[in-house]
Amino acid sequence: MHSEAVASRSADQRDSARESREIRNGTPQLDAVSLAIIQQLQEDGRRPYAAIGKAVGLSEAAVRQRVQKLLDQGVMQIVAVTDPLTVGFRRQAMVGINVEGDVESIAEALTAMSEVEYVVMTAGSFDILAEIVCEDDDHLLDVINKRIRALPGVRSTESFVYLKLKKQTYMWGTR
C-alpha cells in the first residue's frame, strides 16, 4: 500500500519533496521554482496563488505549500511597506553605533526596540547600523540618548537624519 501511495503522487508533490531537501550549511537551497515564486510575490504580494501557479507551472495547492515553507524557513516575509511620513512618522535616521565588547548583545537589544526597523552588524567605521523610525525629533532624541546610548557597551553613536527618502524598495528579486 505504501508503494502505491508513493507511486500515485502528483508531479506537484514530487516537486515539493525535492524542495524539502534544501537546507545545506544552515541555508535554504532554493530551486528555480521557489525563486520564481518569490519574484512573483515581490512584484505583487497579493497575487493569487492560482496566478502564481500558472506563471511557475505548479498547482495552486503546491504554490501555497511552497510559500508557507518559504515563510516558515525565514526566507521571505509578506508585509505591507508604508511610507513612514504618511502614517505619522516624521523622522527617520540611520544610527552608526560603536561598541565595546559583545556586538551581538547590543544588536539583540536594538532589535527589541519598536522604533528600530533595521539592524546590521558591519565591518568598517561602525560596529552596527540601525535604522530608526520616530514620530518627531523629540522622539528620536529620546531613543538615541536615553535608550541606545544607555545600553552597556555602547561607546559612541553617530546619527544620519533622513531629509528626504528618494527610494525604498525591496525588489532586488532573486538575482
Explain what you see:
By secondary structure, this protein is of the alpha+beta class. The chain is built from 7 helices and 6 strands. It has helices spanning 2-7, 11-19, 32-43, 49-56, 60-72, 103-111, 137-148, and strands spanning 23-24, 27-28, 91-99, 116-121, 128-134, 154-161. A 4-stranded antiparallel sheet has the order 4-5-3-6. Helix 2 (11-19) runs parallel beside helix 5 (60-72).
Helix segment count?
7
The Rg value, from CA coordinates, equals 22 Å
User: How far is the first residue's CA from the last residue's CA?
Assistant: 43 Å
Order of helices and strands: HHEEHHHEHEEHE
Number of extended strands: 6
Mean pLDDT value:
86
Unreliable spans are 1-13, 15-22
- Reading side by side through the largest sheet, how are the strands ordered? 4-5-3-6
Structural class: alpha+beta
| Biggest beta sheet attributes | 4 strands, antiparallel
Shape: elongated
Share of helical residues = 25-40%
Features:
175 residues, alpha+beta, four-stranded antiparallel sheet, two-stranded antiparallel ribbon, 7 helices, 6 strands, disordered N terminus
Protein topology:
Layout: H1 2-7, H2 11-19, E1 23-24, E2 27-28, H3 32-43, H4 49-56, H5 60-72, E3 91-99, H6 103-111, E4 116-121, E5 128-134, H7 137-148, E6 154-161
Helix pairs in contact: 2-5, 3-4, 4-5
Summary of the model, kept short:
With 175 residues, this protein is of the alpha+beta class.
